[in-house]
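tl;dr need the bound structure. longer version: we got a ligand (uridine-5'-diphosphate-xylopyranose) that a collaborator sent over and nobodys looked at where it sits. i said id run it. heres the input, straight from their email, havent touched it
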Amino acid sequence: MKICIIGTGYVGLVTGTCFAEIGHDVTCVDKDAAKVKLLQNGGMPIYEPGLPELVQKNVAAGRLRFTASTPDGVEPAEVVFIAVPTPPQPDGSVDLSFIEGVAREIAACMTSYKIVVDKSTVPVRTGDKVAETIKRYCKAKVECDVVSNPEFLREGFAVDDFLKPDRVVIGVKSQRAVPAMREIYAPINAPLIVTDINSAELIKHAANSFLALKISYINAVSVICEASGANVIEVANGMGMDARIGRRFLDAGLGYGGSCFPKDLSAFIKISETLGYDFRLLKEVQRINSEQMERFAKKILETLWVAKDKTLGVLGLAFKQNTDDVRQSPAIELCQRLQAEGATLRVYDPQAMDKARAVLKNVTYVKTMNEIAEGCDALVIATEWPEFKKLDLEKVRRDLTHPILFDGRNLFDPAEMERLGFIYKSIGR
Ligand code: UDX
């Protein structure tokens, strides 16, 4: 199929590249000319494992290209995907101006029937608005079907999530769009759900909110574990073996962050309010999430007694492992909270230090993981990067003035850490 993707952000770039990988002819459009140039020259605007190789391979095969011109992408395409940001507004509602702008741009250069697919995360009923806008601004008065096809990619695992999804959701108003959508996803071995547009849009917000709820649930359980002497990992393992619950997204820690969960939860609460329902359950999920970070900060501060004039090493700045993304990162929030108490910080992240520099000032960025504890009074682990498990713990213990390690992601075994001579404080155990 001839596909155009508008927006080469996280979702657009992964989607376009993976569509090319499964054999489609893809043009990615972005109005940021510098980004287009970078991509045309083989550069990558984001860190995502496996993606650079796939981009290179598909560009070389002639199945993938980048342009700053919307008409160049839209005119030859049978299907146009919208993958532009839907950022939050101060009141939690979603700013849909990019979506509206792209709908107008598509309409302006449409000269034949197109299927316009919304991949961005949008409030329920946005599909109707997109269809209305295209109809209003399309001078050629050609037909168009709007489809909702939400994405469920996790940063750091996006290529795999795209090529091996649990399901593909397609929301349509007219059956005319279904065969083309089935053809696009035919090479992907996953159930394809065809539903109405409103339900498809709602599936995305309902799914992400439920996953955030799962994380807040286990974080709340971790508080009870600490108070009672139970171990949250044992509890999560035992719960997770029930197939109705499942083990994934039951890792207690500093809480969820990133560009999706916090935004999607606020949006879903706002959407519900607009539709006349006060979604208090989700407000509680948010409250538990922010309390979790604060509880961990207090644990550090109470142990240190006075943070002023103390130096802390912090491992992890990204909002989670396998990404350079620091948007709404609990790790950055924790750093800022510790700085506000007067602590001096040495920090390290395998990928996110460049992006962190813009938001986290007055800290020392160290070059390698194993030099993190040099001259520090304590060490903090804030992101679940797997390589942190390979930390040279003997060196860390020697480097620290006091062998105190606060583990916000439960990477180590408490008994083993005690044996190694650490005062080890983690979450829910
Ligand atoms: C999420 C959804 O998983 C994805 O389907 C959607 O399309 C976009 O939002 P992402 O934000 O990339 O993906 O990250 P995810 O792996 O879901 O983790 C989100 C946050 O939850 C991270 O801060 C992570 O550290 C935290 N988390 C995750 C936990 O604290 N515990 C867990 O058990 C799982």
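gonna send this back to them w/ a short note. The CA atoms of residues 91 and 327 lie 18 Å apart.
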